[in-house]
Amino acid sequence: MASAVRRANTDSGVGDSGGRPGEGRWAVLYDADCGFCKWTLSVLLRWDRTARVEPVALQRPEAADLLKALTPAERMAAWHLISPCGERRSGGDALSPLLRVLPGGRLPAAVFARFPRLTARGYRWVADHRSRLSRWVPQSAKQRAFRCVQAREQLSLRERGEPSSSTPTMP
Predict the structure, then answer these.
(1) Which residues, in sequence order, are bridge partners of residue 57?
(2) Tell me, what DSSP letter sits at residue 79?
(3) Which end of the chain is more exposed for a tag (fewer CB within 10 A), N or C?
(4) Gap between the Cα atoms of 34 and 43, Å rounded
């Protein structure tokens, strides 16, 4: 499977380099209805002490703007990473570039980059089994993850000068 890098539409202010508050941020587009996805994202956000990663739920309108080149089904089939310059990587192809952004992530990023097919297969297996894997994550961990992701999303909205969305309840 060849690694595909695509250009994303960055008019939403996420991941753009046009001088908006999101400048220099990497957008991670994730399925907000997936407890396992949110828990995994919260691990990455806690690792991201410099707040270079901005979570964007795939269900939000700005996700559709960022992923205009994809059909709705393609958008929901994987998580996506949008670089500050607007390049998009999806699924397993997004893991190595994301890890390179995180403190101490260069070594694991190099390992995943060295084995792209294995990384893609591993990602696909996890994505296909996320409901089953979610059962192994305690509800209290999912609740902490929900709060972590929500706090980072609210921070990003405030920094862009957008009104904070209403506080959703934990599913």
Answers:
(1) 30
(2) -
(3) C
(4) 15
